[in-house]
Amino acid sequence: MSLRYAWSRELLEPPIHQPHWKNRLYSDFNKSDWYGMLASGRAIKRTIEEFPVAEQSLLDLDNILSLLVVPIFVIGEVGSTFWGWMALADCQQERCWSMQEESTLFTMAASISSALLRQQTEETIRYRALHDLLTDLPNRTLFNEQLSLAIPNASRQEKSLAVMFLDLDRFKTINDTLGHTVGDRLLQSVAGRLKNCLRLGDIVARWGGDEFTILLPQIEDNEDATRAAQRIQQALDSVFTFEGHDLYITSSIGIALLDETGGDTETLIKNADTALYYAKEQGRNCYQFYNASMSTKAPERLTLEKRLRQALEKEEFNLVYQPRVEVATGHILGTEALIRWQSPEMGAVSPGSFIPVAEESGLIVSIGEWTLREACRQNKLWQQAGLAPICVAVNLSPLQFRQPKLVEMVAQILKETELEPQYLELEVTETTAIQDIDFTRRVLQELEQMGVRLAIDDFGTGHSSLSRLQLLPLHNLKIDRSFIQELTENVKVAHIVTAVVTLGQSLGLSIIAEGVEKAEELEFLKSINCDAVQGFFFYHPLSVEAATEILRQNQAKMINS
After folding, report:
1. Last residue of a domain, one of 254, 281, 298
2. Confidence class of residue 217 from pLDDT cuts 50, 70 and 90?
């Protein structure tokens, strides 16, 4: 019994210290029937003579002649739980307990139950406020509290401490390709391994996303931190298996020491974060100690990745459209949607700078989905504005093309935007297409059955041939700009382009030349009957407003021709 109150007459010693009652099992005194009655919500009202002999001997230890016992319940999320009991005992006489006495005791039990429930609720609220719901690790608030306490403690004992910032390498790729359920289970397993490989007293917290922070509250030197980092990386080396997937994951770790980086919470965490970025720059799957020579600014490439993560949410991206022109007539056949990023901090960021970073970090999947949805939405708006329907082309990144639910995602976007499938063209680079020709054929066949037009982009940069590509359900083939740039200067290149156009058209493909910038390039392409061109000679990529006006002019020209 964990809670006991005793009332007695004046001048009588209250029996409040009974070790024979406390922390004992009901079965110790053959009182299983007590548990059954109380757990069912019933009271026990008896004189000593009404109890079995074994229980009488227990009551005799305290001179109890009559006993009234009522249960205490605590109401939780899954219903009422039998928590304990309270009793009135008469040590002076045998008596029959009245209904009023029983009711009074039940009322007191209910008051205790309410107090316990309030206490548990407050504890639950505080726990949830200070712990991550997914991994059950401390969150950043609790980590900061613990770190702020550990700093003066380490200083008093003339010891150091270490703060580690850990990031899972390529986690977003796993999350995007296998789904958030697998990603969440991976984070939970990582949390468990981190806890198991640290010392008693060390603290690991989930900082957010796939980032964790670790506090080594007392260390002798940086060798202690080095050994901890090595244990962590070894713990994560073993395979993680979920739903038939064997996953291998590595981590990058930044380490800041108290005696070398300053003595406040914010500085330690910031410096550990900076060291983490340098660890990533070293190729990931390593750890890096912070030192004063490190710039407080993270390396440019990693800063770019960090800001990319916020760009979608803050609506910093926009699309521009480059028209595709029919060589024979000069009319616009369609447009290609191209993404642009206007960062408040960095200004206009070149696609050549941020697209590779987005691809490497896995962010390209979310960015690509936004691009596809926005391009379809704008194309539908042009149709609703009375412009003649045209096809808008969107390039699929290699990672996006291999998403398990790519086809479903395309179908959902077409449904949301109400754009008919024949007015969307999806472009896949030659290199992406030939990596797994059977997979590519299966995905493209599903998209073709949906009614979407399909194209191979950057043809000539990979190691395929038209004989392999003929296995795919394609509509267009785009010759890479690198060939067009040498078209009028290199005879061999001119022969290659001529052969591609002739053979491609014989396979039923429409041939489009990219990067046309000169009149002589256009004349050559016209002479070999290339179908369409795209490049600065006709149009630079245009804003929505400029593209709308160009399409209106093109429509008027087609009507008048």
Report:
1. 298
2. very high
